Amino acid sequence: ECYVQNTAREYAKIYAAEAEPLEGFGEVPEIIPIFLVHRPANNIPYATVEEELVGEFVKYSVRDGKEVNFLRRDSEAGQKCCTFQHWVYEKTSGSLLVTDLQGVGMKLTDVGIATLAKGYKGFKGNCSISFIEQFRALHQCNKYCEMLGLKSLRTTHQKQRKATSMKSKNLPNSSTIKKTVPKKAREPRDFISSEH
């Protein structure tokens, strides 16, 4: 829990350093730190502590990967959280996504991380890879994405879908194709697939 939140916090600091100097961007989301405390005399020897957030607690994005809560996406904090997700996705070449953004105003806590490949930069993540796929499909850029010069994911995703559907339309019926596979290719192999 500490590692997830503090890793996301480091990304948020770099994001803030790029976004805050931009004219008109304003305040940026901050992921508050979380600390592990050892209490040897206690029945439960380990606990996490963090700053208490006072005010209306809002979920800007949720663990099911569906970008920003539709009731909150028009808020400034919601849009900036969405932009932060897009920024991290672009900075990591689609390999990592900070998700489950929630908190009070611009102060966020209890975030999640999804990674495209297990062990990306030594980080396992705590959310499914499907969150990355869903984010790429559902994300809608806003003015903050534009201010940071982030590339539209929708256009890329639509082009990929269109190219895939065009290929399948141009292929002859699979029952008329005789498939021959070299002997070596039939041997089972361990491999990692990635989507690009």
TrEMBL record:
Enzyme Commission identifier(s): 2.7.11.1
DNA repair found in the keyword field: no
Reactions that this protein is recorded to catalyse: L-seryl-[protein] + ATP = O-phospho-L-seryl-[protein] + ADP + H(+); L-threonyl-[protein] + ATP = O-phospho-L-threonyl-[protein] + ADP + H(+)
Composition skew (Polar residues), residue ranges: 165-178
Keyword annotations of the record: Cell membrane, Disulfide bond, Immunoglobulin domain, Kinase, Membrane, Repeat, Serine/threonine-protein kinase, Transferase
Protein localization: Basolateral cell membrane
Protein name from the UniProt record: Alpha-protein kinase 2
UniProt source species: Ciconia maguari
